[in-house]
Amino acid sequence: MGLERRGRADQGQPGANPKGEEPRERPEPKVKSFEIDKRLIVEAWEKVRANNGAPGVDAVGIGVFQEQLRDNLYKLWNRMSSGSYFPGPVRGVEIPKDHGEGVRLLGVPNTGDRVAQTAAAMLLEQVLEPVFHRDSYGYRPGRSARRSAHDALAVCRRRCWTQDWVLTLMSGPFSTPFRIPCC
After folding, report:
1. What is the dihedral of CA 45, 47, 52, 58, to 10 degrees?
2. How much is the pLDDT for 157?
3. pLDDT averaged over the chain?
């Protein structure tokens, strides 16, 4: 079997590539899809290591992950920044509910996945925290759910003395609003 002769890309049509319109330089290929700093991955690892969580379904704990730390963090960074990272399965652990009636299932991710989740959370916090309203209390660093509810009520009480408020109540999708002045 010999070499196959290939035709021209323009199929021999002279108007397909007019003179002077051919690209002179090739565009530089993009190195990574996402710009993730390697230091961010290292900082995320330090947070995960400090937490000292249980191993996931792959049974790789903090100590085993640390034995090949450089390779593990590089592999994780490379996959995250190229867009090819996918988390692995999680280990299900049944824990008792607060009131003692039944159990709930807790998912324990692999150590590498915890590093990736922590890195993503750190990156999102840097970008989104300045955008949040100061009265936004849900899932914010340094603000617990109980403390947030207490703070929100305190702010509401303070503002009720300085500003006029109106509550609008609606009981259904087509109902007429019922307005109650609060102050």
Report:
1. -40
2. 77
3. 80
